[in-house]
Specification:
The complex is a heterodimer of chains A (249) and B (334). Chain A has 249 residues and is mainly alpha-helical. Chain A is built from ten helices and four strands. Classes of the chains: A mainly alpha (249), B mainly alpha (334). The interface between A and B is large, with 60 and 65 residues.
Chain lengths: 249, 334
């Protein structure tokens, strides 16, 4: 462990890449995992109950028994196969099916801003996701994900046994919408010249700097600034700064 | 830091920010790739160039603006580009066929010793269960419910008239669900250094032997055999196979070799996955047979034996990859 790592800093997964610049992901702790799990749990419970309620109601109405949602004392094969079995399948197959279809995500994980990732930084394949879900049987043992919770608390990368077996991690998904600078009209080369010009503004002869500024502004497609007085120079500098790019927020 | 280098960094910082247009376009290209799953060669080449350019911008940002949200943005964009570029092509049909044709036989070959030992444990446990209940009949209560015992003592099997109580379709689904859960549990319990798996295999063997001994004491063992032969041969084989896979997972934790325990565990889980898929497929068939064939009183014993051993031969062919088209002379795939 890095001795200079700040206390309480999130554990990171760093992956070497061909470019020489590593890819980093912040690993989700037990709290983040529990948050995503609880959202998913509520979704699958609601979906399973909704299926059960709708199918049971339709079946009972079709059989002329009125609006009853009660489990029949002598359930028929049709009732079990169309009402109980799909509801159970929704509840128990929610994670494996959605993780496969959504490539390591579920609705709960998406809301919590987390996703499953293989240790090499790739989206885990179907095999890894299946293994991860097979070991849910052990992680959920004896109740309330007891073993899974203990292992996420005890392991440095906060993984449950299913993750250990599948070679996966739960990481935070960074939002790509975070504070991107405003769209600029200049290409980088032009911008560099503009910035350099502002930096050397005082050192340059007034006529030369005015001439350079006007040529850069013209190349950027902006309307020319007229006049040779101080106010016009200030306007030229402001325009160069604005076109040159924003400071990071 | 000198005034000159500060000025250079400030300039670099502004130039770096003017790259925002490029980042946006690169992000749009990545999103298009993600949405469509594939792009033309020229576009793919452009995305690879984007990846290198984003890496360069990110490296700059880590140096000149490590705390900025723009660096966060670039981290996100870079990790997305990395994920998209390194994502393997997905061909579900081919992957499944390849799993059954090549990976499954290789897995079974690598687990031969485990399969032999777990099967031996199962048979020994069954023998022990038989001996225990034959010698001390009161021990049957350890493995059978009171209702089951009463039914057998009245000269009937608890499976008699099963179809009068539960339809075949429901019975099939209940049984196959239960069998799959038991098999997967026996496998994943291998995490406890193999002890969990061995415990489950041992208990199942003890139960089978003791129930047979108990029914034999009441003259019903022949009828019990008649009930289970159609589905039981493959079902019990599947339990042994899942136990063998679980034992291999446990062994990877006990003897990881030169690899780290974590890596050896993940490798063992990955290696045994094809066998688990085959077990689930086979148990679907067992559930069907146990729901429709085994409880059917009109099904003659000969037909049951043919179904049971025929399905066993199918299982062997599946495990050797022959069902998926692997020729008998093929070398094993490691």
């Amino acid at each position: 462990m890095d001795p200079l790592e700040p206390v309480g800093a999130p554990v990171e997964l760093r992956i070497d890449s061909a470019t020489g610049v590593d890819v980093s992901h912040a690993i989700v702790g037990p709290g983040g995992r529990a948050y995503a799990f609880m959202i998913d749990w509520h979704i699958r419970v609601v979906l399973a109950i909704a299926w059960y309620g709708a199918a049971a109601l339709l079946m009972r109405l079709g059989e002329g028994f009125g609006r009853s949602l009660a489990i029949p004392t002598d359930p028929s094969g049709r009732w079990l196969l169309t009402v109980a079995l799909p509801a159970g399948a929704i509840y128990f197959l929610y994670h494996p099916v959605l993780e496969l279809l959504m490539r390591g995500r579920t609705p709960g994980k998406r809301i919590a801003g987390v996703r499953i990732l293989a240790r090499d930084g790739r989206t885990p394949g179907p095999g890894a996701l299946l293994i991860r879900n097979v070991f849910r049987l052990i992680d959920s043992f004896p109740a309330l994900y007891g073993i899974g919770l203990i292992t996420t608390l005890l392991t440095r990368e906060h993984v449950r046994i299913g993750d250990l077996a599948a070679g996966t991690l739960l990481v935070y998904e960074r939002s790509p919408q975070a504070a991107l600078p405003a769209r600029t009209a200049w290409d980088p080369e032009l911008s560099e010249l503009g910035i350099e010009l502002i930096a050397r503004w005082r050192e340059l002869d007034p006529a030369a700097r005015r001439d350079l500024a006007d040529r850069l502004i013209a190349r950027s497609g902006q309307p020319a600034v007229g006049g040779n007085d101080a106010a016009a120079d200030r306007e030229r500098q402001a325009l160069l700064r604005r076109l040159g790019g924003n400071e990071p927020a | 830091m000198t005034a000159r280098s500060e000025r250079r960094d400030a300039a670099l910082r502004r130039v770096w920010l003017t790259r925002a247009n490029f980042w946006r376009d690169a992000q749009a290209r990545l999103e298009a790739l993600r949405a469509t799953g594939g792009v033309e060669a020229a576009e793919a080449s452009r995305i690879a160039e984007d990846y290198r350019a984003i890496a360069s911008d990110l490296a700059t940002s880590r140096r000149i603006a490590p705390q900025s949200r723009t660096r966060e943005y670039l981290e996100s964009l870079y990790s997305r580009a990395h994920g998209e570029l390194h994502r393997g092509a997905i061909h579900p049909g081919y992957a499944f066929w390849s799993l059954l044709r090549d990976q499954l036989p290789a897995t079974v070959d690598s687990l031969r010793v485990h399969i032999a030992w777990v099967t031996a444990l199962f048979l020994l446990s069954a023998g022990a269960g038989w001996w225990m209940v034959s010698t001390y009949p009161e021990l049957a209560r350890l493995f059978a419910s009171q209702e089951m015992i009463t039914t057998v003592e009245r000269g009937k099997l608890w499976t008699d008239g099963l179809l009068n109580v539960t339809p075949s379709s429901v019975l099939s689904v209940q049984i196959l669900t239960n069998n799959i859960v038991v098999s997967l549990f026996a496998y994943s319990a291998g995490f406890l250094f193999g002890l969990g798996t061995l415990y489950i295999i041992g208990i199942n063997g003890l139960m089978l032997g003791s129930v047979f001994a108990f029914t034999a004491a009441n003259g019903l063992d022949g009828r019990l055999f008649e009930f289970i032969v159609a589905h039981g041969v493959v079902e019990l084989s599947c339990i042994c196979l899942s136990g063998a896979a679980g034992a291999a997972v446990g062994e990877s934790l006990i003897r990881p070799g030169t690899a780290r325990r974590r890596d050896a565990f993940a490798a063992a889980a990955r290696r045994t996955l094809p066998l688990l898929v085959a077990i689930v497929l086979l148990l679907l068939g067992c559930g069907f047979i146990e729901g429709y064939v085994s409880p059917n009183p009109d099904m003659p014993l000969a037909a049951r034996i043919v179904i049971g051993f025929g399905y066993f031969l199918f299982m062997v062919a599946l495990l050797r990859g022959w069902v998926a088209g692997r020729s008998r002379g093929s070398a094993s795939v490691d």
